[in-house]
Structure formats: C-alpha cells, structure tokens
Amino acid sequence: MSAVSMSPLAYEEFSKFLKGNNVTTNVIRINLAGMGCGGPAFNFTLDAQRPNDEITKINDLTFLVDNDLIAQFGGFILTCDEENGMGGFSLQTLIQTDNDCSTCSGCH
After folding, report:
1. Which of 3, 14, 9 lies closest to 88 in space, CA to CA?
2. 3-state secondary structure 56-87
3. What b/e readout covers 39-66, taking b as 16+ CB neighbours within 10 angstroms?
4. Residues contacting residue 45 through CB under 8 Å, at least 6 positions apart
5. Which of the listed residues 1, 52, 72, 79 has the most CB atoms within 10 Å of its CB?
6. Is the pTM of this model over 0.85?
7. What pLDDT digit, counting tens, does each position of 68-97 carry?
8. Residue 44 contacts by C-beta under 8 Å, 6 or more apart in sequence?
C-alpha cells in the first residue's frame, strides 16, 4: 500500500494549485504540523529525500513521508474541495486518532 493516495480529480486540482502558485518542483513532503483538539494537523513543504522517507509517486508528483509518521498514522489520502466539502485540500489519515479534548481546558 502507498503512503499517499489521491483520486484523479484531487491530482488534477493539486497539480493546478502547484502551478498556480509557481511551484517548480514536484517533490512534496507531508509533515506533522501539530496536534490539537481536532486531532493532527499536517502541512506540505518542498524538500529533498531523507534516509527515513517512504516515497510515493503519483504521476509526475513525488510525495515524501517519514516512516515514523507512517507508523503513527498509517498513510494519507489527499482530497480536494469537491471531494471533502471543505473548500480546500485535506489529508485524511488511514489510522484514526483519538480526539478527546482531555488535554486542554476547553475551547474558548
């Protein structure tokens, strides 16, 4: 199983997004940006391959994900706004995390 997957529609939209933002590389890293009450937050960065990376090629895009992140979350499904109804791109993890707000004093 690949560390990253996406539908043809998500691929098309993500490629347009990269081109529209003048991104000239096709190597994208998925990082854990942090944990919050809503669960994990991820981001994309432009980066080079590292020794502990899992590499997933989808057409002309190359996604890099650290193997420790894959062990924790199982991998990722990238969806576009038409698929997720959220007005942008999102990453769903294959392993669901517990999002119980027990570590904070509540939303304000």
Report:
1. 14
2. EEECCEEEEEEHHHHHHHCCEEEECHHHHCCC
3. ebebebeeeeeeeebbebebeebbbbbb
4. 28, 29, 31
5. 79
6. yes
7. 999 999 999 999 999 999 889 999 999 987
8. 28, 29, 30, 31
| Residues paired with residue 66 on neighbouring β-strands, in sequence order | 53
Using the structure block, give the residue that is written with the tokens 């294959």: 94
d(CA 44, CA 85): 20
Cα 60 to Cα 37, 85, 96: the distances in Å are 35, 26, 29
Cα 64 to Cα 56, 67, 69, 104: the distances in Å are: 7, 9, 11, 32
